[in-house]
Amino acid sequence: MKILILPGDGIGPEIMEATVEALNALDEVCGLKLDFEERAIGLLALEAEGSTLSDDLMGHIKAADGVILGPVDTYAYPSPDQGGVNPSAAIRKELDLFANIRPSRARRGVPALAPDMDLVMARENTEGFYADRNMFFGSGEFMPTEDVALAVRKITRQGSRRIAEEAFRLAEHRRKKVTVVTKANVLKVSEGLFLGEVRDVAKAHPDVELTEVLIDAMAALLVRTPGAFDVVVTTNMYGDILADEAAELSGGLGLGASVNAGDRHGIAQAAHGSAPDIAGRGIGNPVALMNSAAMLLEWLGARHGRDDLIAAGGQFNDAIDRGLEDPANHTPDLGGRAKTADVGKAGTAEIRK
Ligand code: ATP
Asked: Bridge-partner residues for 2, per DSSP?
């Protein structure tokens, strides 16, 4: 099973090193036979190959069974014609990674504003408000005059349906509750189309309870009753914002894991950015990326019918959780003094126990 490692920018290389160390231990202990290959992406690739994401690299990404992508610092990239391609956006579009799955759960021993939170956000990942990637040709963001800026939002029946199906699949293996978040009272046509598909998919899952909530109410309810939510399904930009809110409530951005998945490809990617303000100091929290790697193993296991990979993903998550129970393994974002490498080593030690 070939796993492509792309460390990325900012704290990416540091948190990736800790993640790969733990993954190597897991591979050894569980006999998974993972085959790791590492390549440069982002600013290092730009320096070496003239592009943050070359065609050659895209070929390797497509050929891998799974990819672990570190955060990328797109703010620091030049324009696309000078090689500054946004890797996250380009990969999601090229590989049609329509589902961004972002769990947020509080952990024992980690201070959290919402200690009873345990939810998964199923965020549509290919259309919505992201005007830079929802057109076949050209940009969906444009200025008809110098004083007017317009952006096109795209919602399709197929895009809505497949993320709805993913959400209900997730709920079947969890607490059997789906909350759909829209603004269908105002954007009646586009949000109505999304909501209609979710309602339709719900009919095939009579054992799963569907609740409908408006985005503004959801922002408040996540704070007021965080423990009430199981699976949350929503459109692209609402999902982006709500998932950050949920990550923060459950302990912090440094714990926010995610997988971007399509029918054929899965990419593990921490929900946070490249944190350039702390890069190079060895204090970035690797937990989000480690949990993302665990999710990727579970996704690969489900896709290839390999129960050992699913079990190994669970074992990886448990090992990370046990490591976090000790405040000595908390990085500064969690109020501690641990280094990135300490967290990796703690997880690795727990895996080997
Ligand atoms: P992007 O637009 O790429 O998401 P951003 O600047 O909005 O970038 P982050 O890079 O995630 O967001 O950083 C937001 C804040 O959270 C920064 O202060 C950063 O240091 C902190 N942060 C993000 N990830 C981590 C992490 N893994 N460990 C510690 N601190 C982190």
From this structure: 35
* pLDDT for the residue numbered 283: 98
CA of 252 to the centre of ligand 1 (A): 10
pLDDT at residue 83 in the model: 97
What range does the domain containing 149 cover?
113-250
Tokens representing residue 180 in the block: 């759909």
Mutate to test the pocket of ligand 1, among 253, 283, 289, 339 (most ligand atoms within 8 A of CB): 253
Residues composing the chain:
353
CATH of the domain at 191: 3.40.718.10
Q: How close is the Cα of 274 to the center of ligand 1, in Å?
A: 6
Task: Write out pLDDT tens, residues 19-77.
Answer: 999 999 999 999 999 999 999 999 999 999 999 999 999 999 999 999 999 999 999 99
Given 226, 250, 274, the domain boundary residue is 250
State whether 82 and 172 are in the same domain: no
| 260 inside domain | no
67 Cα: distance to centroid of ligand 1 (angstroms): 21
103 lies in some domain: no
Identified catalytic residue from 154, 183, 339, 345: 183
Catalytic residue among 27, 73, 240, 333: 240
pLDDT confidence tier of residue 135, bands split at 50, 70 and 90? confident
pLDDT score for 136 = 84
Q: Which residue's alpha carbon is nearest to atom 22 within ligand 1?
A: 275
Q: 77-133: per-residue pLDDT in tens?
A: 999 999 999 999 899 989 999 999 999 999 999 999 999 999 999 999 999 988 877
The sign one gets for the Cα dihedral 42, 45, 50, 51 is negative
Would you call 314 exposed, middle or buried from its count of C-beta atoms within 10 A (0-12, 13-18, 19+)?
middle
Say if residue 92 is in the same domain as residue 119: no
Question: How far apart are the C-alpha atoms of 80 and 76, rounded to whole Å?
Answer: 12
How many structural domains is the chain composed of? Answer: 2
29 in a domain, yes or no?
yes
Q: Which residues contact 129 (CB under 8 A, 6 or more apart)?
A: 151, 153, 235, 236, 237
Same domain? For 322 and 287 the reply is: yes
pLDDT value for 40: 98
* pLDDT value, residue 143: 96
Is residue 18 in a domain? Answer: yes
Respond yes or no: is residue 216 known to be catalytic.
yes
